[in-house]
Design a protein that fits this description.
Layout: E1 5-13, E2 22-30, E3 43-46, E4 52-55, E5 65-70, E6 80-81, E7 90-93, E8 97-109, E9 115-128
Parallel strand pairs: 3-9
Antiparallel strand pairs: 1-2, 4-7, 5-8, 6-7, 8-9
Length: 171
């Protein structure tokens, strides 16, 4: 890689010693990169009553500026940002899912033609769905030594597990 600055390169083609050579010149202008973006640590939390939000923890970009966006390949789209140019914007999510958020650092230039240098960092936010409401089924009355069949309602979200409640079990 080249350091920031302007470089002139000459391309020369020769064919033996009798023919004149052919040359062409190219100018390469290398611009300064923006400051290195740091999107902050990955986050995981349980969904809340809408809106589902979290505070982001990107760094301040110097030189240049920053901008939050959602990875366009995420299967669930629709994340919004309170101020996409703020490193500590609030992100709002459309529902449970996995979201990849990109903090892009940009430094623009105007010469020799307008353009920009960009760097990115990505963080992941996982919003877990609330588990289904537990329903252990109806109370059971059985005779001693009879089989007891517990009949809980299968959860739609989450995994159900039977345990013995030690404070209210048995004689």
């Amino acid at each position: 890689g080249l350091a920031e600055g302007t470089y002139v390169f000459r391309w020369t083609i020769v064919n033996g010693t009798i023919c004149d050579s052919s040359t062409s010149i190219v100018t390469v202008v290398v611009h300064e990169n923006p400051g290195t973006p740091a999107a902050g640590a990955d986050q995981r939390f349980c969904e809340t009553t809408p809106p589902i939000t979290t505070l982001l923890a990107g760094n301040t970009i110097t030189p240049g500026s920053g901008l939050w966006s959602q990875n366009p390949t995420d299967p669930i789209q629709g994340v919004t940002f309170s101020d996409p140019s703020s490193p500590t914007a609030t992100a709002t999510f459309p529902g449970p899912g996995t979201y990849r958020l990109i903090w892009t650092a940009t430094k623009t230039f105007t010469l020799p033609v307008p353009g920009a240098c960009t760097l990115t960092d990505e963080m992941t936010v996982i919003v877990d769905a609330l588990p289904s409401v537990a329903d252990a089924g109806p109370d059971i009355t059985e005779c001693n030594f009879s089989p007891v069949y517990l009949n809980a309602v299968e959860p739609v979200t989450g995994t159900g597990t039977w345990t013995v409640n030690p404070t209210t079990t048995g004689p």
